[in-house]
Design goal:
The protein is mostly helical. It has one domain. It has 7 helices and no strands. The model has no long low-confidence stretch (mean pLDDT 76).
Length: 121
């Protein structure tokens, strides 16, 4: 057998990698903000954050002309994050993978607990 052929076989992708861990921590952070500060202040903070991100991207004036920056700004942050977490949860296929998922969520909630007083006022 050719040694290069055995190296070219596609290995199954692990459910735990740095990107999925960071997404899960970010989701835990947002979930923690909702738990500790409430939904309305978290959406207001997300709106402020998304508006700042849109302004720095250079598309702020275009999106503000359509009213996008004020009405859908929190969903720019929340919807993709929720979709990525759903994808990550769907890819969990073992107890170990679920433990990593739950640990990342709990770390995010812990960070939100430590930071919610200074972020959301």
């Amino acid at each position: 057998m050719d040694p290069f052929a055995s190296q070219m076989q596609i290995q199954p992708q692990s459910s735990t990698n740095l990107f999925s861990t960071l997404v899960n921590i970010a989701f835990g952070f947002v979930l923690g903000l909702v738990i500790f500060s409430g939904f309305e202040p978290t959406v207001a903070y997300g709106t402020k954050l998304a508006a700042t991100l849109i302004k720095t991207s250079g598309y702020g004036q275009q999106m503000a002309a359509f009213g996008f920056a004020t009405t859908a700004a929190p969903y720019v942050v929340f919807a993709p994050l929720l979709g990525l977490v759903a994808t990550q949860l769907k890819s969990v296929n073992s107890i170990r993978g679920f433990v990593y998922f739950a640990a990342a969520i709990l770390i995010g909630i812990g960070v939100a607990f430590a930071a919610h007083g200074s972020l959301i006022k």
